[in-house]
User: Fold these one by one.
Assistant:
Number 1:
Amino acid sequence: MNKTVILAIVFVVLVLIVVVYSTMGTNRYRCEVCIAFHDRSACRTAAAASEAQALRAATENACAQIASGVTDSIACENTPPSSVKWLSSPAP
């Protein structure tokens, strides 16, 4: 094998390591958020590196299912969740 092939293989392996680490290693908090907005409701889960990020991501995902348009989406995301269930978090 020549140098180009070896460098390409090393590059691909490094990219795969970064992808696996970024998707598995940093998402320590996982929650399910249920939102009720304009007589509709949705529950979604999300994972992130912090509680606030996980809560926000789950809220945005739930609102994406039940709100239409920018104004409704913003209003939905500012609505307090009807329920929040923490599925995983680091031990204290």
Number 2:
Amino acid sequence: MEPLLLLPALIVLIICAIVGGWFPSKKYVSMLLKWAEKNNYKIIKYKMKLPILSPFTFASNGQRVFLVTIELKEGKIKECWVCCGNWFFGNHSEEVKVKWI
């Protein structure tokens, strides 16, 4: 096979990996929603953030970090950082860590 034919396929593969890694998968969002439900929180909004811009600076590629605005049971609004997944096992773990702002 010609090396020049492999170049476009390689470029497409790299773009898909970059774009696919940036958007939160359903698994991570599901973990976030389960955490909120378990703790009787109502999620008002959430946004995935780069780990380096969060308290979870050393999160792995298998983890996703969210900035979350929630409503507590008493009606109080709070913000927190939520890291979903395990450093080693990624989203194969249901681990959720929280740091309140």
Number 3:
Amino acid sequence: MTLAFASLMFAVMVVGLAATADSQDKAPAPVVEGQDQKPASPDKAPTEAVVEGQDQKPATPLDSQANTAVLPESQERAPAPKPESPDKAPAPGEDQKSVVATEIVVYASDLPERALFEFEFWPSRQSPGGKMVGTIQTGDKLNPPPEEDPHVTFKVKVQGGMPYRCWIRMMVGEPLGISQANRLYVQISHAVDKADKEVFRPNTASYLTVQGPLRRGWKWVACDVDPKSTDSLIYFRDSREVTVKVQAGMEGVAFDQFVLSPAQFLEKAPADSIVKK
């Protein structure tokens, strides 16, 4: 029995040694710290190392390189130049501004001394600037243009192609002798009538008459061709500076405002004693 037990123990030891040897053959090799633990693949060829920043695009075949001209990057991206188109011509009237009618107002107080010929500045609390211009009353007779009697001349800017009406704020003076002190004559250079005929040129026999009332005092009076005329409008062929001549028709007459109106006072006299500029 002792012998049998010893044989059994020996057999167990042999089997244990065989199992230990088999497990040692299958154990992995020890790992060294920092070593790549991925097994090398024998089927794949090692790839070339890639340098940082190097273009990784596949190389172009030699045939395509031979037939293709390489252009600089700036030339490849630059668009083809476009033909310059001529400047667009503005449509008719595109740059033209609409003409705005402007009231022309002249105060006697604004006139220089040299504008007066045998007229005088007189003080007036009812006039703009505190002045009016007038002629001395002697009761004598004055003649219409082209006679050179007392007058005032000044320049204004007008617009062409529109009608104007002339108004004067007259001070009817004290009558004396044959003078009623209530008449003026007006002439304007470059003026034409409705038929485009030149009229009212200074120092000619063509003029407008400003006939005031007999009653003494201030009055807005229209410039008329004659008392019976229904069309005393004034026209100008183009926009320009013109000369206005206001001549005394009777001694003792005076005025403080001259208005050339294309709109506001074209049909009716100013209602206020002073027309604002």
